[in-house]
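Support request from a user on the community tier.

User writes: "When I paste my structure tokens into the form, the page sometimes reloads and wipes my input. The last time it worked, I copied everything first. Here is what I submitted, just in case something in the input itself triggers the reload:"
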């Protein structure tokens, strides 16, 4: 992509890598740059620094934005503990990550509003998403929940409020629902805004090291929290791999450094942790604490404040904090994490955006390393189909749908097209009919063919009769999917949705859809030149048997590919 004149969004632009990427973008002459960070202070600092370094860019060129991109707009500026301490806010978080991605869930997202406000052509995401999600520490919250459950079971009283709070905190912290929702919102937001390219600066979670990594966050080696970071990072990569295979998504790339990232500056001064100075305390031998049967992990008053803060020589590694000379030397020595500079990451990022090939795009690497559909499998397809069709003839059955592959919509469409085949024989006969006749003939067949009717409802696919108010069904149905509720309110809108998702629908309005669908296929075939024999057309007259039959599998493949825009993008 030519970056000149484009709107660029750098998510996490205050950080070490984000800052380097913002500066590297300036060589490409974009139109404007939105720079985001978690807090207002960070976003403002980042923009002021860029304005200082590039005074000719104009006052409105760099635009600051701040907030948590993983939550709704209402919560974006609140500390996480403030959110988790409120039942009202916990309920919001749970609704936003557990429920389906509806329009309201999408539109109240802070990330959606950010992208829709500025409609960036290019998005570079430098936020360490894996750290942000995994370091919420589901293990610690689980331990608290287990403790509350044990206490509640041993008590004869009603469960305490703390138990309900612990359950809600755990739901708010579940890694996979948060990550899935984040990627869903990122994709939909960029697709609606017309973003052209998305680059994620990812992580391996361990700085490129293996399970023997010496640096840990607990007594385990490696800790489960650290491995959670790698697990989330890997899951994120696979979700982006899928986004990169989605036709209407932006071009999707990921640069994944496998080393420590350094550095921002080297200095002498106050050493801070999470933005606060480390206050010095003292515990002289005369005030030694005796070690008895119980070790108190927290002991206020054990040490005396000195009214001073820790000052030393340090190297600032951005989001990873300040390291001493010894710490930096230990992790960067050959055979340990070593390190990569943010400028090198920025160079690879810009080169990839400009359609260069650095060899460092993880999504492209996965595309080339995964085992794609093969020529051998394609060659053997016809043989498999012939064997299946021969067995159908031998046993006098038609193999339509079992509802094991899913989704239920596929089974519904297969059986609807199969009913059309039984009633009309071929596509042309359907297109010469009308919706009223189609509905009546399919209903008549369902009424007299006990075996067919039984097969459909026995796999969990109900049959909605033409009145739209009565159905034929078994004990269980696949749609709507069970989500803990035994009953659901019935509305015309709900019936339409359920019928679309997985009910054989005999209503005239559905027959109208089928009529149009088969007319579209007919026009596609009949518009082909009579003597067309080139490789240009895959679904030619021969494929459709010159419209002389209705093949449910082919029809459903066409629906998923063309009507529902579900075509595979990459072989």
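"...and here is what came back when it finally went through:"
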């Amino acid at each position: 992509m030519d970056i000149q004149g484009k709107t660029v969004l750098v998510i996490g632009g205050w950080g070490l890598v984000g800052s380097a990427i913002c500066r590297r973008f300036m060589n490409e002459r974009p139109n404007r740059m939105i720079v985001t960070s978690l807090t207002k202070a960070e976003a403002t600092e980042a923009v002021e620094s860029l304005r200082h370094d590039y005074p000719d860019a104009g006052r409105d060129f760099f635009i600051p934005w701040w907030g948590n991109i993983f939550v709704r707009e209402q919560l974006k500026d609140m500390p996480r503990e403030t959110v988790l301490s409120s039942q009202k806010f916990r309920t919001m978080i749970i609704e936003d990550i557990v429920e389906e991605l509806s329009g309201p869930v999408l539109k109240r997202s802070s990330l959606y509003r950010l992208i829709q406000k500025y409609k960036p052509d290019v998005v570079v995401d430098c936020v360490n998403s894996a750290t942000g999600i995994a370091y919420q520490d589901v293990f610690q919250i689980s331990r608290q929940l287990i403790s509350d459950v044990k206490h509640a079971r041993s008590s004869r009283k009603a469960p305490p409020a703390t138990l309900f709070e612990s359950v809600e905190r755990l739901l708010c912290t579940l890694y996979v629902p948060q990550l899935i929702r984040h990627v869903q919102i990122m994709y939909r937001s960029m697709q609606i805004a017309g973003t052209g390219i998305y680059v994620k600066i990812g992580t391996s979670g361990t700085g490129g090291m293996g399970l023997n990594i010496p640096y840990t966050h607990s007594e385990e080696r490696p800790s489960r929290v650290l491995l959670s970071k790698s697990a989330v990072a890997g899951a994120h990569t696979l979700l982006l791999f899928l986004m990169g295979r989605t036709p209407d998504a932006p071009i999707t790339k990921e640069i994944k450094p496998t080393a420590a990232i350094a550095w921002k500056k080297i200095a002498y001064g106050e050493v801070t942790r999470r933005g606060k100075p480390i206050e010095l305390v003292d515990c002289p031998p005369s005030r030694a604490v005796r070690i008895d049967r119980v070790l108190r992990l927290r002991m206020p008053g054990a040490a005396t404040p000195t009214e001073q803060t820790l000052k030393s020589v340090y190297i600032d590694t951005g989001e990873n904090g300040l390291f001493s000379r010894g710490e930096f030397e230990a992790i960067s020595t050959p055979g340990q994490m070593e390190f990569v500079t943010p400028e090198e990451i920025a160079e690879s990022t810009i080169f990839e955006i400009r359609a260069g090939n650095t060899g460092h795009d993880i999504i492209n690497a996965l595309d080339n390393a995964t085992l794609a559909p093969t020529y051998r499998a394609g060659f053997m397809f016809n043989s498999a189909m012939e064997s299946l069709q021969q067995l159908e003839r031998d046993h006098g059955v038609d193999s339509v749908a079992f509802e094991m592959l899913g989704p239920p919509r596929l089974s519904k469409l297969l059986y609807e097209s199969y009913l059309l085949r039984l009633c009309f024989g071929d596509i042309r006969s359907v297109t010469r009919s009308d919706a009223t006749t189609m509905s009546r003939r399919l209903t008549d067949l369902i009424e007299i063919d006990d075996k067919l009717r039984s097969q459909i409802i026995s796999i969990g696919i109900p049959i909605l009769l033409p009145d739209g108010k009565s159905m034929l069904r078994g004990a269980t149905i696949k749609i709507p999917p069970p989500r803990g509720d035994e009953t659901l309110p019935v509305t015309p809108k709900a019936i339409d949705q359920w019928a679309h998702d997985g009910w054989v629908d005999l209503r005239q309005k559905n027959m109208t859809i089928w009529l149009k669908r088969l007319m579209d296929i007919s026009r596609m075939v009949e518009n082909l030149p009579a003597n067309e024999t080139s490789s240009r057309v895959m679904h030619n007259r021969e494929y459709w048997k010159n419209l002389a039959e209705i093949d449910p599998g082919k029809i459903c493949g066409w629906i998923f590919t063309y009507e529902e825009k579900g075509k595979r993008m990459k072989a």
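Agent notes: The reload is a front-end session timeout and is unrelated to the input. The chain has 22 helices and 18 strands. The CA atoms of residues 290 and 423 lie 89 Å apart. Escalated to web team.
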